[in-house]
Amino acid sequence: MYQALYRKWRPQTFADVIGQQHITDTLRAQLQSGRLSHAYLFTGTRGTGKTTCAKILARAVNCENPVNGDPCNECAACRGILDGSVLDVTEIDAASNNGVDNIRDLRDETRYTPAQVKKRVFIIDEVHMLSIGAFNALLKTLEEPPEHVLFILATTELHKVPATILSRCQRFDFRRIGAEDIARRLLDVAGGEGIGLTEGAARLIARLADGAMRDALSMLDRAAAAGAVDEQTVTAALGVMGQDDSLRLAGSLKAGDLAAAVGLLDEYYNAGRDLASVYDQMLGLIRDALLVKTSKTDVSALISPAYSVQTLQKLCDGLAASTLIAWSRVIGDALDRMRSAANRRVEAELCAVRLCSLDADSYDTLGGRVEALEEKLKNGVPVQAAQPMPASGTAAGIGDEPPPPDDSDAPDWAGGQEDTRAPEKNEAAAPAAADWPHWPALLEALTGKINTGAHTNLKLSARGIEEDGALVILCEDGITAMLAKAEPTMKVIRAQAAALAGAPVKVKVQEAGDEPVHKKNTAVDELIGRAKAFDIQVKEL
């Protein structure tokens, strides 16, 4: 009968346990010196070796021929415990035996001496699931058990264990197993099983296991069903993104290419991948990219083994740290919404829209947005310039182009003919806003004379137009307008504008959308015209 890899390759001695040397060395030293505690508490995340070490300890205390603190696994006691025939070693699942009566039965069993081995060992797994009454029933026995009894408690949620229990046990904290250690172990297991596992696939599984050796072996078991295991096999079997997939999606978001990003999400969705997991992996990539972007020291040991430092540096070119942080916030919010969304795919695509079009509110601070703009400017990322307003002569709905100037039969398109159309009431005039001729020179002159953030925003998000002889700085957003209106900045802008124009220039700052609407009132214009014909002085307000 086939046995799962995580059961078949469960460590049989302390020397076989990986990633927990601080615990195994201590336990072996206690066994060799005979200074064993009466109760142990093993705590840590899933798959880190808590139950495995508990079973090894149970054999080691009863072994007839221990080897440097490890059980020999050859004597009658070791073999009996391994095959479950020794009833003096009992493993209890507290999740399903969590009542007071269960603990009372266990307490009654402690009175009897072991029949086959030296000590009776009670392994209580997931001990945090016991009820308050069950914990209270265990207290006295746990504090002063008979000499022939050893308690080993295991839990993944230490905060749920009462302090009265903690104080009666010798506690050992199991760490997450390092990705490099998991990858090496996977390659060893694959070699013993005759599985063709590539190093890249082992690293990918190790990253996905998140420090749990049991999870890693279970993933290898799934991926090995098709034979040889490489990165493509792992991503197909587990329904996750590979290294290149994550980088492709990040590259599309970096370029602001929404069509490519949504296309990739569609590809992952059709391949059966959970889009929430896709974004969860993106958070891991963003975390590694932030380490590479912001750290001034070598972080190769801290990043995921799935990516190289050079790959992450290439991704970070043109991306500010504040942009990466903004991405993580947008993705985090999307993941929260996806948990309760009726259509997770739509929510995932909306997240891509937000990532490709970050606005000012997406950044933590104004400094973060300025940093992002400066990074774009430094790396030559093209910025969409504001489009000039259409001239009044090209009104919507008139598709005819003027004929060539040498066509003598053509009507006078230059405005010589009077427009006989009756003007509509309160018709809004849309005169073309002429660019201020010295605007590029002004931006150049302001270099180093005003705040760097204000200067960057003016370059990327503002336009200088001329209106009634005044310079109007038309800003695309409120932040740029606020920076431009600051009195020290305005003072320098007025001085430089006057120097370029050769005369004092009135300077105004407007945010896009706040421009005054000039409405044409033909009745008033006609009245003013007649008054002027009779030399009547009219004061216009």
Automatic annotation (TrEMBL):
<dbReference type="InterPro" id="IPR050238">
    <property type="entry name" value="DNA_Rep/Repair_Clamp_Loader"/>
</dbReference>
<keyword id="KW-0862">Zinc</keyword>
<dbReference type="GO" id="GO:0003887">
    <property type="term" value="F:DNA-directed DNA polymerase activity"/>
</dbReference>
<feature type="compositionally biased region" description="Basic and acidic residues">
    <location>
        <begin position="418"/>
        <end position="427"/>
    </location>
</feature>
<dbReference type="InterPro" id="IPR027417">
    <property type="entry name" value="P-loop_NTPase"/>
</dbReference>
<feature type="domain" description="AAA+ ATPase">
    <location>
        <begin position="36"/>
        <end position="178"/>
    </location>
</feature>
<dbReference type="GO" id="GO:0003677">
    <property type="term" value="F:DNA binding"/>
</dbReference>
<dbReference type="Pfam" id="PF12169">
    <property type="entry name" value="DNA_pol3_gamma3"/>
</dbReference>
<feature type="region of interest" description="Disordered">
    <location>
        <begin position="381"/>
        <end position="434"/>
    </location>
</feature>
<dbReference type="GO" id="GO:0005524">
    <property type="term" value="F:ATP binding"/>
</dbReference>
<keyword id="KW-0239">DNA-directed DNA polymerase</keyword>
<keyword id="KW-0067">ATP-binding</keyword>
<dbReference type="InterPro" id="IPR008921">
    <property type="entry name" value="DNA_pol3_clamp-load_cplx_C"/>
</dbReference>
<keyword id="KW-0808">Transferase</keyword>
<dbReference type="InterPro" id="IPR012763">
    <property type="entry name" value="DNA_pol_III_sug/sutau_N"/>
</dbReference>
<dbReference type="GO" id="GO:0046872">
    <property type="term" value="F:metal ion binding"/>
</dbReference>
<dbReference type="InterPro" id="IPR022754">
    <property type="entry name" value="DNA_pol_III_gamma-3"/>
</dbReference>
<keyword id="KW-0548">Nucleotidyltransferase</keyword>
<dbReference type="Pfam" id="PF13177">
    <property type="entry name" value="DNA_pol3_delta2"/>
</dbReference>
<keyword id="KW-0235">DNA replication</keyword>
<dbReference type="InterPro" id="IPR003593">
    <property type="entry name" value="AAA+_ATPase"/>
</dbReference>
<keyword id="KW-0547">Nucleotide-binding</keyword>
<dbReference type="GO" id="GO:0006261">
    <property type="term" value="P:DNA-templated DNA replication"/>
</dbReference>
<protein>
    <recommendedName>
        <fullName>DNA-directed DNA polymerase</fullName>
        <ecNumber>2.7.7.7</ecNumber>
    </recommendedName>
</protein>
<dbReference type="Pfam" id="PF22608">
    <property type="entry name" value="DNAX_ATPase_lid"/>
</dbReference>
<dbReference type="InterPro" id="IPR045085">
    <property type="entry name" value="HLD_clamp_pol_III_gamma_tau"/>
</dbReference>
<dbReference type="GO" id="GO:0009360">
    <property type="term" value="C:DNA polymerase III complex"/>
</dbReference>
<keyword id="KW-0479">Metal-binding</keyword>
<comment type="similarity">
    <text>Belongs to the DnaX/STICHEL family.</text>
</comment>
